[in-house]
Fold this sequence. Notes:
Blueprint: E1 2-7, H1 11-22, E2 28-30, E3 44-45, E4 55-56, H2 57-70, E5 74-76, E6 81-85, E7 91-95, E8 98-107, E9 111-113, H3 119-123, E10 129-130, H4 133-136, E11 146-150, H5 154-163, E12 169-173, H6 183-190, E13 195-198, E14 201-207, E15 216-221, E16 227-231, E17 234-237, E18 241-243, E19 274-276, H7 288-310
Parallel strand pairs: 1-2, 1-8, 2-5, 8-19, 10-17, 11-12, 11-17, 12-13
Antiparallel strand pairs: 3-4, 6-7, 7-8, 9-18, 14-15, 15-16
Amino acid sequence: MENVIIIGSGCAGWTAALYTARANLRPVVLTGAQPGGLLTTTSIVENYPGFPEGIDGTELMMRMQKQAERFGARTEYGALVTRVDFSQRPFRVWADDQLWESRTVIIASGASHRHLGLESEKLLEKKGVTYCATCDGALPMFRNQPLVVVGGGDSACEEATYLTRFASRVYLVHRRDQLRASKIMAERALSNPKIEPIWDSVVTEILDVKQDKVTGVRLRNVKTGAERELGCAGVFIAIGHVPNTTIFKGQIDLAEDGYIICRPGSTATSVPGVFAAGDCVDRTYRQAVTAAGSGCAAAIDAERYLSAQRA
Ligand code: NAP
């Protein structure tokens, strides 16, 4: 029987592991299929405090893991949780058909970037296709180059505005003729002389797989059906996120869009003893450092819960 099982191995998961390990709870981290989480899909992380030169996303995750393990955290590599039962105690978690039982669970399963679903998008990821302007926007390959941002929400507007610091021009490609973003963010983006909106358009292909780098996009106007090519050095896809919470449906309270609902000011879910942290809870900030902070909070909440149980 475990004290703490941590589901997920991104910033939130490793920080929860570090804190619960230092509280002598010997946590087990079930890493999931992508150890290190979303940050391992990016290149240099330049906005994580303490690394003035920036740090490779994968390396940052490996360092967090090492730090947690130094204090006794145990790692189950690749352990993908397929089912949970929080209706009884101890809680039950199945990963790769192995059953784990635990007094508490910290869910740090993260979120996935929504993808366009194009083959060329997959093949050119990290080669000019990215899902995070704050992580990748300042890379030399994007400097003084035309860039494309796909999406019409707050993220797309924020990313487009941010990218104007580096790009020669930013094309904001949206599938409708009206942004979904909040008024203030939309106005800020649309009034920026470096941003050119391209309405009613979808990206049908990212060019050029043969050259193994982004040289442009093929666009289709959804109203007229007209196709055209647009040159760019990078494609920033900002069409929303999908929290990785499907397996928790029916076990804890989830919002309509799948994000885990926690008690205000706490990491407690609707089931006492089950806590949640990071991108599976946070639809607003979604930064490595905010995820780490909430992982810390979940560890403290779990530790206090266990102490109260023992008293
Ligand atoms: P979002 O609001 O869900 O917007 C996603 C956008 O992507 C929409 O414009 C949508 O088009 C488009 N889209 C979705 N799937 C698409 C597809 N397959 N192909 C092309 N376009 C597609 O997501 P978000 O912008 O990431 O924002 C999420 C939440 O975080 C929101 O509540 C937002 O307010 C918040 N947020 C806040 C801030 C801030 O305040 N600083 C910054 C970022 C995000 P349609 O409009 O046609 O549906």
